[in-house]
Amino acid sequence: MATYVHMFLLPVCIIVVFRIVSCTDHLLPLVINTWQFSNATAKAWDVISKDGSALDAVEQGCSVCEVQQCDGSVGYGGSPDENGETTLDAMIMDGITHDVGSVADLRRVKTAISVARSVMEYTQHTLLVGDQATQFAIEMGFKEEDLHTNKSRQMWQDWKKGNCQPNYRQNVTPDPKKSCGPYKPNKARKIKLSKEQRYNKEVGEGNHDTIGMVVIDSMGNVAGGTSTNGANHKVPGRVGDSPIAGAGAYVDNTIGGAAATGDGGVMMRFLPTYQVVESMGSGVDPTSACKLAINRITKYYPNFSGALVAANLSGMYGAACHGFSTFHYSIRSPGMANVTVEAVPCS
Length: 347
Description:
The chain contains eight helices and 14 strands. By secondary structure, the protein is of the alpha+beta class.
């Protein structure tokens, strides 16, 4: 076992998640990520248990989900867009420097979070998108390969046979609730933009679209990351919250970090992970900080579905959610014999 620099206990060690955890849970290092993606958690834990960095742990942990196609919502072979193409979004963030690397609408390269890290390490940019992101990845030595599978092709074919439903278009003609297009703006009626229209009604426990991970390593350094294949049947070119710093994930080496999952189109409008970290920096515990950020969104979008996880440098962690019946997340710290899946009820 490695020597841990920041192994200290809190004077009060109660976290409400369906159980009361003991003080031994409040130790560093720590790995926390969205959903029951415990293999990803275990891989990240293995990295930091061997004195690996938080950045390495996030990259390798999220890569497990990209390879294993976690729930079909991460990695290749899932969530085809209107054209039947699977594209990937990912980001990684260093809490020491606040450097970020992101890719969005990445095509024909499976290892999205590793490409995102290359953006951070080999360019002075933050975000690369589309075919140009693919070109960059190939220049950096990544392999170009097909992201489609028989399953994703069948998903797209079934969607086309069902008159392209569900559909993310609005205020267009022909009627997107009945037709596959091609579409044109509907100028015959006044356009309405309401909070009830512009959220994803299809997001749920089986369609949540992201792994978001926060790691605090044995030196107390923090990193965060995300990876996803986005919303199923999205408009080509759509980018959600996952590759956006402060939306999909955010970390600060003096505070901790947070990660998000759910309806990214709504959540990215509020930068919830940035808000969670700022709240924790003001002394708010992780669970309460997540609830505050969720409540800010529900004020405007009461029917959206999403969730947040967070951890601070004291080893406290927590989560909050809305729209799902229950939200599960995976956690590992020295006080646990194995990866633990926690559950929280949603508002």
